[in-house]
Each structure stands twice: as structure tokens, then as C-alpha cells.
Fold each of these.
Amino acid sequence: MNKSGSRFVLLSAISCMVWALLSGCVTQTYRNGIPVAEEDNEAAKSKEAFREISRVINSYKGEYADLHFEKTEKIMQEIADGDVDTIKEVMNDPDRFAPPVLMSYAVQVFRSGNYETAMFWYYTAQLRARSDANKSLDRTTHQGVTELSKVYGTDIGNFAKLNPEKLEITMKQVLEWDKSAIRKYNPKWVAVLGSEAKVGTKIRFIPEEQYAIADSETRRGWEQGFQAVLKKLKEQRDERDGK
């Protein structure tokens, strides 16, 4: 494996594990072993995230402005508002939408009680977001993905940690899906999460012919990271159960 490939594996594995461990520090209310979504708090967090995105969008210049991320933001808000037509549009062709849209969709699915389906779409979005960040030459995009995950993944992440077997099944399904699915969105969307977007005009990205390599190496690193997290979760559960 070349140095570039090794970098993809290391960054995505570390990012995944760090996020999973840190999200465990969040206080959550449970009912029958299932996290109870705190609707008001979640709605407030989503609205604040939208406001921050809007604020940054107004300052985009050059190639960043050409991404027209405000369209993605609009879809995310419509999903958060429960717009049935928009939700159906995403369901019918999920590969056409950037990861933030799928994260927003996953939250709505989770709130409807379809926890495992929500996990699938959330972790699919997280995998793709990490993969897109690995294509960016602005390394600060990884921190942006982490922050995005925190906004949309609290309840889903807590449910996953309580159900490591379901998480393991979901992880395998996500990897298989992503290997064969054709991504139809522009991976450069992730550039808006980096610090360079606030001051630059040109998006720094790896050549398009290297995208497939980045996707493959990210899947490998993502799987390694999740396996480590799953092992830790199962050990913690066995300790609690006195095994």
C-alpha cells in the first residue's frame, strides 16, 4: 500500500473510533433500553446548525460558491420539517444526495421508531462523509465531519452502543451497499466544512481518477475502526452483565 492509501486508512479509522468513544459521554434518557429522543433539544440543535451553515454560505467565494450548498441546506430543512414529498424524493434515489441529507433523513427515520433503518442511513452517510473528507486536501474537513456527526448522530449513536450486535449487522450492510452503489452527488460538498472555505476561492481536492481508491481505502479503515469499537462495546456490556 502506498503512503497515500495508508493515510486514508489511518485517518478514517482514527476519526471513526474517536467519534464513537466521545459520543458515549453524552447524557441520554432511555425507555426500555431505547434512547428517548429529546425533540425540543434536537430541533434546537438542528436549527442552530442550519443557521451556522447559512452564515458561512453567505461568505463563500469562487469554487465554494459554485457548490450551491444552499440547495442541500434547503432539502435538509424540509426533511427536518417533515416534508413528505422531499422525504419520498430522498427515499427513491438516496445516492443522489450528499451525506448531510442522509443524516437528516436518518434522524427522521429514527424518530419514527425505525431504529435499525436509521442506523443504516446514518452510518452510510458517515462513511461517505469520511470518504469525501479523505479526498479533500484541506485536512480540517475531517473536524467538520466530526461536528456534523455530533449534530445528527447523538440518539442513533447511543442506540448503536446499546445494541452492538445490531450495529455489527448494520456495519456489514453499509459496507456492502457502498461497494456497489453509485454515488451521484458531488463529493466536493465536504469542502464547505473546512477552514479554507471561509477564506479561499479554490477547492483543493485529489484528482477525480483517485476517487475510487480513496473510497476503497476509506471503507477498509472505517471497517477496522468499527471492529475495534464493537469489540470494546461488547467487553463493556459483558462487564456490566458480570460475564
Amino acid sequence: MAMQSNPTGGAASTVDPAEIAKFSKLSAEWWDPTGRMAPLHKINPHRVAFIRDAACRKFDRNPKSLSCLAGLRMIDIGCGAGLLCEPFTRLGAQVIGIDPAATNIAAAKLHADKSQLSIDYRNTTVEQMDPRERFDIVLAMEVIEHVTDVRAFLSRCAAMMKPTGMMVVATLNRNWKSFALAIVGAEYVMRWLPRGTHQWDKFVTPEELTRFLQDSKLTVTEQSGLVYNLLADKWTLSADMDVNYMMVAENVAG
């Protein structure tokens, strides 16, 4: 799919307007743990733990400390209503959350105010960010399967990392198992997500993601799958990356 032009005159945008519209409709439901975002709420503690532990290894911090990320600057790209921004702010990080959907940012600001948390939320895209801004931790969680050009998007994300920083990317693998579970199972059988939330052909395999990251001079240092146990109704981190998975990447020259 062709990249969208950027009316601000900066770098071309990888944002897909149809994807923004999809998630804008869900903005009021982000913080309802029993609603359509219930699966995300169940996955979230595992995402937070994976990122926290990887960051603590990278920056030599104690993951058991309640302020283990103090002094670190983090950006969550495609932050939605702030489900990751809030826990990392509580862990001491200085967090910026950006999202192209204004309704998501409004929901994020409202919830942060209610929670008395200071988070810098911005209704913008990664291409529209000041190119001089740099971060210790760059998050692109469940985003790349919704952009128009994965390589260009990751290149811009990588450019926002400090030389000693790290990036964490989460996405969905592309195979028949992911089609059966993430599309048919999640959208049509379990009805966890509205039909059409994901497009299977836009899923990214771990091999493809590794190559895209290498194109941005990043190397994968850690990876993990996320697996759902239907009988126990819970998610766990796993070596199985057939469906949901996460990767940590660092600057080769860092």
C-alpha cells in the first residue's frame, strides 16, 4: 500500500486513515477490563513485565524497585488510551504517548488525570515528531500490523532512539495458526475484537521483522511469544512465537 502524504511537509506518513477510524471507535472502551479490550487488559501485565525486565537488564536497574525506570525517557508510539504509559510512569519513567487518533488521546488524558499521573500525551504521528527528540526506550506495541510501510515506520522509530537506547516491538506472526487464532478465533468465535480489526496479510513474521530492524541498523537482543491458555483463561510469556510475539532491538553501534 502506498504511503500517505504528510500535509505538514515533513517525512511521508505511514499512518493508515482506515486504521485510525477503526480504533477511534473503540476509544471509549479502552479502560473497561470486561469490554472489548478485555484481552489487552489480560495481556498487559505480561507486556509490562517483559519490557520492564528487558529495560532493567539494559540499564542495570533492579526490576523489583518501584522506581526502577526513574530517569529514563520513554515514548509509546500508537499508545491508544495509555494502557502501557500509565504503569511505566508509575515505575518512574518520563513517558510520552503519541497516537494519531484524537479520541484515543482524549481518553488517555482523562484517565491519567483521574489517576493523578503526569504523562505527556500528543495527538500526532512518529513522522510529525521533532526529529531531534531522543528516547532511552521506544515502544511500538501492536502497531506495525496497522501501518502502510513497516520498514519506513521502523526506520523513523529507530531514529528516535538514543545511541544507547532500546526499542520494543510487539506484533502478530503471519501463518495459518495466527489466522485461525487471531482472526477467526479472536474476532469471529470469541468475539474479543470487532470483525475486521486485523488484516492477516499485514501480519509480520519474526524473520521479516528482524530484517526490517537490521535495515535500521538494529539488532534483536531478546524475544518472547505470548500464548493464551483457553482452559485457564490466561496469557503467559513463552518461547512459542507462532502468533503473538515481542522483540527487543538495540543499536548495533550503541
